[in-house]
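REVIEWER CHECKLIST
Item 1: Sequence provided? yes
Item 2: Single chain? yes
Item 3: Sequence as submitted:
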Amino acid sequence: MQETAKLLAALKQALRARGLTYADVAEALGVAESSVKRLFSTGRFTLDRFERICKLAGLSVAELARESESAEARPRQLTRAQEAELVADARLLLVAVCVLNHIPATAILDLYTLTEAELVRCLTRLDSLGLIELSAGNRVRLRIDREFSWLPEGPIAQYFAAELRTDFLDPRHRAERQERFLHGLLTENALAELNERLASLRRDFARLHEASRRAPLEKRSGQVLFLASGPWEPRGFEALRRKTDR
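Item 4: Structure as written out by the authors:
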């Protein structure tokens, strides 16, 4: 029963990662939502139904079994020293970002000017860091938790923030991105609601990224979602404030 519970927990997590609900599962199986809830509460699946739900979650039964076995050991973050190591080695950081975005080794060699020896070196190091499991033929399987993230204000976050400022947000690239600027005065309750919606948007982005992973590489494109909100007033306005104002 313990093994069954681990498989069900892994399956539920995989469904959540894709933004799928019991209602979605019920529609895929052609049964009532109450029946799906009963299946998950009792764990009494037919093999056919279990395979169909796994397929809906984007996994084979074998992949789900591996996920459930290694779930507890999967890192959600690297250490600051490990992130600093990635940032210090441009090729290692590039390969790390590629594999986290499910780009296979053959495509990395096609896209970038890395030799196969350099690629193997990077993949081997990522394996030792616990990010991936490297097997014959440079095949890669991610070993990270589904909620893996870079350290807030860590070396990699700082690296990408600097790149965003100097490149992505460069006015010359404005035509290549969708950009919205909003400014207003919000109450504490309104700000709390806004922050929750931004958190929901981040979760949606992660779900869509996961859902896109099995599409051919040529059907996918690198996208950045850059969110920033906080108290701010232009320096020119601030200079005109009366000194007695709070």
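Item 5: Key structural point noted by reviewer: The mean pLDDT is 85.
Item 6: Recommendation: ____
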